[in-house]
């Protein structure tokens, strides 16, 4: 009996994979960057992508998103949420293209979140993003793009309330004990009364902290109804470091999240771009990496992570434990 084949069959029988986190507007652009650039650190790449954002026309964006969606379909994906750049480099080219593709795409469910790669506190970026908030399915956020992460979160949470939309936030991405962003996100969620409407993307650095701290964060996360998206291969290439932390794989501690009754979905994150030149967006590969790295052999749980949990964080399926939209 081939376990991978039976697992895939169960997922397809359950409607197919939900890719809950991607950046399709930059998919298949790896060839635009040199080998040296591909080896740069994450935050340097945040700036290097300006080149394709500047050079791409609305049609380029459209073609890229459509091609990436075709590839996703071939991997058995039925819904994808993609963050889409809106800032003073991409302006509205990427978001206009994404909206156009969304309205014409009938064979795969395509959802859009705003990417805030240049932050939300700068006045120009703030105005550009807010203009398109009525059209995004989910409000996206990257607190690390602003010097003041708390103020960044206050702004996106205010938007989530005002526009009555779910919020997905990149947090604890760097696998370092210097980060405590998941805790901050959970606390802010409660303060803003956004329980059950906020999702943490990554939360890898949680695993760098002692068990007592992790337990505390799981408790606050439960109180906040915080859900999680793990992108299993996204930071597995994390550069080796000399600082000491509890031993763990460079991945969201999904086994512990599940034990603590927290909802976890999966995403591909970047596909064939400067960040992940060899990531092809195959969600079965991502699920396999997750089950190996976190030792999760419970097939029922794995099917939930790949399908129904994805629907929950995307607001597709409503259950008692997820806010109605
Ligand atoms: Zn991302």
Explain the overall architecture.
The protein contains 14 helices and 8 strands. It is α/β, with parallel strands linked by helices. The strands form 2 sheets. A 5-stranded parallel sheet has the order 4-5-6-7-8, sandwiched between helices. The termini are far apart. The site of zinc ion (ZN) has 6 residues, from loops.
Lateral arrangement of strands in the main beta sheet? 4-5-6-7-8
Rg over CA atoms: 18 Å
Describe the main β-sheet briefly.
Answer: 5 strands, parallel
Terminal CA distance reads: 42 Å
How many beta-strand runs? 8
Reading the helices and strands in chain order gives HEHHHHEHEHEHEHEHEHEHHH
The rough form would be described as: globular
Number of helices: 14
Listed once per kind, the bound small molecules are: zinc ion
Label the structural class: alpha/beta
Strand content: 5-15%
Summarize the structure in short.
The protein is of the alpha/beta class and 325 residues long.
Which terms would index this structure?
single chain, 325 residues, alpha/beta, 3-stranded parallel sheet, 14 helices, 43% helix, 14% strand, globular, disordered C terminus, binds zinc ion
What order do the helices and strands come in, and which of them pair?
Blueprint: H1 3-13, E1 17-22, H2 35-38, H3 42-48, H4 50-55, H5 58-74, E2 77-85, H6 93-104, E3 109-115, H7 123-132, E4 138-141, H8 149-163, E5 166-171, H9 181-191, E6 198-202, H10 211-224, E7 227-230, H11 254-259, E8 264-266, H12 283-294, H13 299-306, H14 308-314
Parallel strand pairs: 1-2, 2-3, 4-5, 5-6, 6-7, 7-8
Helix pairs in contact: 5-6, 8-9, 9-10
The chain binds zinc ion (ZN).
